[in-house]
## 1
Amino acid sequence: MDFITIPLVVGIVTLGIYKLFELFVRKKERLSIIEKIGEKFDASMIENKFSFPSKIFKNFSFGSLKAGCLLMGVGLGLLVGFVICISTIRGYNLGDSMNWGVRDTAGIVYGASVLIFGGFGLIAAFIVEMKYSKKDKDEA
């Protein structure tokens, strides 16, 4: 391991110096941008900019809904795969004594159920998103 220590330390020191210089350069760039904006900026530009919009969910992102439905589908797929393995595969006892055929079959069951139910979760998220966007268009 001694052969990697010197290049690793040199690399870390070099990276630290580079990031330090980059920090100061970015600070100068930001200050110059603020000065340029300050010349063209007028206080009357922001009089009505801080009012809340009439619709809070106008630019609503469905990323958390998609992730939640996907993870729920994956969890349900794991549960269904476990139930299928316990109830149908002979010799499946989650111990070390399983042979390769039982493990191979269990892996296929788990993989297929996770993919199927994860897909169902994404389809459910898509349907909810479409219903919401349709309702939003009807109200507008």
## 2
Amino acid sequence: MIGRIAGRIDYRASDHVLIDVRGVGYLVYCSDRTLQSLPRVGEHTALYTDLVVREDLLQLFGFPTLIEKEWHRLLMSVQGVGAKASLAILGALGPDGVGRAIALGDWNAIKAARGIGPKTAQRVVNELKDKLPELMAMGTTPTAAASALPSDAEDAVIEPASLAVAPPPPRSDAQAEALSALTNLGYAPGEAARAVAQAAESDPQAETAAMIRAALRLLAPKG
């Protein structure tokens, strides 16, 4: 199992890149958003990867951050969402956008991804809403795969999944801290995640205390 790959980009296609690692070329499929963020041919890059194994096919999928890789795995756990559909959703919304859409129950945002119909979009929201808090707690901008990329091409390596960089601890950002505070107050994780997402949508730069107050106002009984 390959958990991370680093090397030189030999060529780019519409849905994948070829990364040369010490003379061995690896085809890595990526979302449109990720492909746009990668450097030019001839330059070096690094991606966290997920290997999909089927009876007649092996495909490697690449992600710039661990959180996006985890979203890919979660999305593929939904009935009707394969690897390509997952990449389409992540390419259209990004990991933060996917989390926000699920927290707010906005399946129309999921449906905006290429090839995703309304029933599939609704399943994504319904099946993943209870798993959202765990990913939110990882933070919104975890360590990027290329953050420690070697400058020397000879140092580029692939790492098995068992040796890949471990997920970073929960980041001390306002959303993660607000979510933790609300769940400690006894609110259900899904309910707290929706309130935090709504508060963050209204004021993305709010500090923790302000985020908690805004979420509490949203959770307060109406009437």
## 3
Amino acid sequence: MQRWALLVAAVAGFLAVGLGAFAAHGLRNVLSAEYLTVFQTGVHYQMVHALALLAVAMLLAKNPARSLRIAAWGFTLGILLFSGSLYALTLSGVRSLGMITPFGGVAFLIGWASLAWFAWRSR
């Protein structure tokens, strides 16, 4: 699980940098200012949670606690649903894709709550 979390964190971070550059240079003249901001929000949340997932991966190397595994899955699912839905919404223009975004937000919250639970229970 630790290797998997580290790999997902690295790929998510790599893609966040690439997608951020793509938005800044390739989408600047294609998307409206509103959609460009929405896309950048996806990039921002993806990078923050890639770093959180990296921290969880390092913790998993020392302690394979269930709460850490849940945190890793929460952050991963959150990136896919939250950021992914924002990317899909802005690139396709299908506003109904925004209905997926809150599920990603809930996954992020589960990840953070699980990490807090791990910290609370650690001695």
